[in-house]
Amino acid sequence: MTRKRILVVNPNSNEAVTQGLRDALECFHNPLGPEVVCRTLAEGPFGVETQEHVESVALPLRRLVEGDNDSAAFIIACYSDPGLHVCREGTSRPVFGIAECGVLTALARADTFGVIAIKSRSIPRHYRYMRQMGLTDRLVSERALEMSVAETASGEGTLARMIEIGGLLKVDGARAIVMGCAGMARHRKPLEDALGVPVIDPTQAAVAMAIGAVATG
Amino acid sequence: MTRKRILVVNPNSNEAVTQGLRDALECFHNPLGPEVVCRTLAEGPFGVETQEHVESVALPLRRLVEGDNDSAAFIIACYSDPGLHVCREGTSRPVFGIAECGVLTALARADTFGVIAIKSRSIPRHYRYMRQMGLTDRLVSERALEMSVAETASGEGTLARMIEIGGLLKVDGARAIVMGCAGMARHRKPLEDALGVPVIDPTQAAVAMAIGAVATG
Amino acid sequence: MTRKRILVVNPNSNEAVTQGLRDALECFHNPLGPEVVCRTLAEGPFGVETQEHVESVALPLRRLVEGDNDSAAFIIACYSDPGLHVCREGTSRPVFGIAECGVLTALARADTFGVIAIKSRSIPRHYRYMRQMGLTDRLVSERALEMSVAETASGEGTLARMIEIGGLLKVDGARAIVMGCAGMARHRKPLEDALGVPVIDPTQAAVAMAIGAVATG
Amino acid sequence: MTRKRILVVNPNSNEAVTQGLRDALECFHNPLGPEVVCRTLAEGPFGVETQEHVESVALPLRRLVEGDNDSAAFIIACYSDPGLHVCREGTSRPVFGIAECGVLTALARADTFGVIAIKSRSIPRHYRYMRQMGLTDRLVSERALEMSVAETASGEGTLARMIEIGGLLKVDGARAIVMGCAGMARHRKPLEDALGVPVIDPTQAAVAMAIGAVATG
Amino acid sequence: MTRKRILVVNPNSNEAVTQGLRDALECFHNPLGPEVVCRTLAEGPFGVETQEHVESVALPLRRLVEGDNDSAAFIIACYSDPGLHVCREGTSRPVFGIAECGVLTALARADTFGVIAIKSRSIPRHYRYMRQMGLTDRLVSERALEMSVAETASGEGTLARMIEIGGLLKVDGARAIVMGCAGMARHRKPLEDALGVPVIDPTQAAVAMAIGAVATG
Amino acid sequence: MTRKRILVVNPNSNEAVTQGLRDALECFHNPLGPEVVCRTLAEGPFGVETQEHVESVALPLRRLVEGDNDSAAFIIACYSDPGLHVCREGTSRPVFGIAECGVLTALARADTFGVIAIKSRSIPRHYRYMRQMGLTDRLVSERALEMSVAETASGEGTLARMIEIGGLLKVDGARAIVMGCAGMARHRKPLEDALGVPVIDPTQAAVAMAIGAVATG
């Protein structure tokens, strides 16, 4: 029997981000379980930072999903869940958005949660989406690092800044933290150790849910 | 390196139910991944049907969790999530409740969901818990089979009745179904096939989340 | 001084629908006020019925808005408000969605409202959007005509069917009705007369709001 | 054909406030459109500042509405919407409250909004009314100028104070501002220019909605 | 030491209703406790059935409260809580509305509740008030007897009709019932016996709360 | 006729706390009314501070209620309402929780309320319970004294600290204060005098509701 495949799509065209996803999902590597494959959306912008970026990848994601007969489940690995509903419309196989999965997984770990965003300009979009999901009752607040994605990915100071912002979220009342970006995974464990509350990487959260869907499906 | 263990506790003392959990979780069996172990709570009542039953297992579950140094994560396998918060208070390891995980996983699959209960007298307790979780916005309704647990486990008619009730939930507007009991798993796939919408077994949902927590932890 | 222009964009490519909008907005014709211009989105599908249709017009609408230096306000005349947020991102001029304006205008007329949809398959999308807008508290229900758009536009039986569905919404508790489609305007007045409660055409509602924004801007 | 009339009633007896309304609504003057007439409620208190003031004008407003056969729509121009429901009970013609219309119009312009009140003692009344309207989900906060109505109307410092308070509302997360008083209209444009987000004068918002109702009615 | 007085005001001018209140509150008669005095508002309409009736008693109630130096607490004995906030503004002594107290007391007895109204035309007003109070989460539904107040007060059939409607509310999911009128008290006990769930008379509920406020004040 | 008895159970085994309840309820002493009897739960922990403490008293409370044929109503005098639902399951007589009654009574006195907790670690548990009760809409915030129960009971500084925290809650917007502990009653009146808003002792609130249930039952 062939292994089932979970396809993780990075909707931006930055291959380094895709490689980061592979690293973050290495922990799920298991030759006897489903295969987790990460892939870059060629049509994507270099980063998904604006509403225009979000919209621009919806239909390319749909076409990717429709054209893929080999994957048992799909994960859209961008914290704005671009194209989630249009992809679901195009297949009966499960399609997961990492923002939704990240938040839902935080809710399985603690009473309340906060979100760390990269930039504050994403926060209104995220709140709008939180309302759409009907998941605001246990959301304490979302706060931004105010760093560029480049800084976040590379910099020494990123973890320190995440600890600072995570600490403010704890003061706000958060008892779990969602990392509001697909590219923060390598900081998950040290951030969790520093804060003393569960820290959720949304792509890892989505993969776990996809493993569940694939195993039982 | 030794495999990490996910302990699934059946809070009732009915060993047949525990065996049913083992069968339902066979799909997660993977010698290279975490070990999923199902165990019966000796102190539990034969079934958890009343609020008194729920309360009676909270502290035994806490003691079980505190006395277990070998498991990396715990799952309380009863759709009332008895003792969830008191167990979390007693350990820094993840503790999952299957009701919470079942609902959260349904929310990752569709806009709206409905719940199939065994008996209608559980529904007020479930609604109270839904309010506590702050997860009512996308709940369409909960409807009961009005069968005994024994009938549910054994009977030929159970699947037919589940299809009937699931159909009513679809008319109510549900686009995913949560099976509101730990012992319905073997009907999941045929029910899903009959209804044409995702059907979530809550214990399977919790195990997937636990696999995620253990893999990344 | 030249007249200010309010541009009403029909995101589908059915010119007959655009002409219907012109007819519906004739009541706002006023040579001393802003000019209301209706135009068809050439890139649109023949009808906007699916999530894919919705997504497909978002970026064409954005480009239309960005390329238009002559209009003082924009109205997206489709009851799914496709591209609303991406268009707002691209201009500081007001952009209105007819679904949002229709609902908000109903809320200015009565305590509760119901929505008449064309097809029931749109209802989950509409409810998801209602949640995103945070406007569900006074929504009683949405019910579908279950007619094709063609039938709705042409048929003799449309008004009778709308009266029937509107009557059910009144029984549900609605005290105002929103017509959940851009193409029902000619039935507004007879439907209102038959039902005895305010009936809101969403495009007309949006034009009134745009007149306010343009007049005071 | 005679022009339809929209009657804007100032429920306080301060004729200067009524004249301010006329000035604020001059932008809607259009001899080919409906006539917007502003009038003072003779029985009103000099200002509507307390709950007692609010209650005192409800029945006089009802009698005014019932005794007026010439107006096609009514606007109650006080940010507490006194008598709104009792006036609606007395006529089948549309009756608009400016608080409701101001908030609804802000919701048509941005994801979130904040309110500028004159005095903090009005804020509990306004929040109570926001709850009644079911429109709190996108309300960020309400903050008070803590000026007297007289100061607000006359003073040089009013705009500066409004910019200061509006800036705090933006920090709170508001992306549109509602001016929570009928007498702030002349500051609308400079406040909007200073803050860079839509600023809504509630009376202007109500007039636009009334124009819509009258045009299509 | 003189006894403290709790003044129960019937805002309609029907002395028979006031006498009914006295009968309903006889159970609180206690010469060593606070005195419960029922009184008719002379200025009230014969019945409070419309929004106009509600508004018409607000200021007379305020004057009554302000002119009364002898009562330690006030109860407005009409299920629309007319004038509640304006009376509170006029005194630092506690003022209770029976609708609010009835609902709050039901919430102290069961997870969910339903309301029996006299006429369906009151239901929108009641729902609006429920939203204002922020107490809708555990409200199941409100249903009307569709009898006249006169029929309700006198008739043989009233109890039977209340049992029928209460039964429907139980089917809806209500586990406590609020009698949505000041004049139903004599049916409370037989209705409770017939339905097998707590039935709350709102005036009795308010008096109990007033006894608490007076005793501890 | 024998007097009806209201049994107030202190679920911790600290007899001094029970005596404090007796003192706090002295104001309800009335030989012609129901008898209010306070009693210590022998099986309780010395204080109820953790979730484990909460769970540990649920079944002992149930047994106490089931074994008591003499009381007409029960009050669980701990601000976590331990065992409330399991006790209700075991009797048809009313069972009140002081947290629920305290909050509901605050809602009968003012638009908004805040809660004073002893320790901040209880606050997440309280918020979770507020969500379960569906009573968060008018909750402004909860703030902790951060004192030990012993300090609270004895110390001179307690009232000063309560005034400080109550003042912060007023700044947050609270217009009534609930004392979030069974042992603060003797500070109720001076705190109310200092803050100028109603202050609710939850046990007194529950006794008043029980008097109502017993009188009318």
How is this structure best described in words?
- The structure is a homohexamer of 217-residue chains.
- Chain A has a four-stranded parallel β-sheet. In chain A, strands 6-5-7-8 form a four-stranded parallel β-sheet, sandwiched between helices.
- The first copy, chain A, is built from ten helices and eight strands.
- With 217 residues, chain A is an alpha/beta fold.
- Chain A folds into two domains: 5-97 and 204-216, Rossmann fold, CATH 3.40.50; 99-202, Rossmann fold, CATH 3.40.50.12500.
- The longest helix of chain A has 16 residues, at 157-172.
- Chains in contact: A-B, A-C, A-D, A-F, B-C, B-E, B-F, C-D, C-E, D-E, D-F, E-F.
Give the secondary structure arrangement, pairings included.
6 copies of one chain form a homohexamer.
Chain A: E1 5-10, H1 15-25, E2 35-40, H2 51-56, H3 58-66, E3 73-76, H4 84-89, E4 95-97, H5 98-107, E5 113-117, H6 123-133, E6 139-144, H7 149-154, H8 157-172, E7 177-179, H9 188-195, E8 199-200, H10 202-216
Parallel strand pairs in A: 1-2, 1-3, 3-4, 5-6, 5-7, 7-8
Helix pairs in contact in A: 5-10, 8-9
Which chains have the largest interface?
A: A-B, 34 and 35 residues
Question: How many helical elements of chain A?
Answer: 10
At CATH's second level, what is the architecture of the largest domain in chain A?
A: 3-Layer(aba) Sandwich
Radius of gyration of chain A: 16 Å
Mean pLDDT of chain A: 95
Q: Please bin the fraction of helical residues of chain A.
A: 40-55%
Shape of chain A: globular
Spatial strand sequence of the major β-sheet of chain A:
2-1-3-4
Oligomer: homohexamer
What name is given to the CATH topology of the largest domain in chain A?
Rossmann fold
Strand content of chain A: 15-25%
* Largest pleated sheet of chain A: 4 strands, parallel
N-to-C terminal Cα separation of chain A, in Å?
15 Å
In total, how many domains does the architecture of chain A comprise? Answer: 2
Run of helices and strands of chain A: EHEHHEHEHEHEHHEHEH
Unreliable residue runs of chain A: none
User: CATH first level of the largest domain in chain A: which class?
Assistant: Alpha Beta
The overall strand count of chain A is 8
Class derived from helix and strand content of chain A: alpha/beta
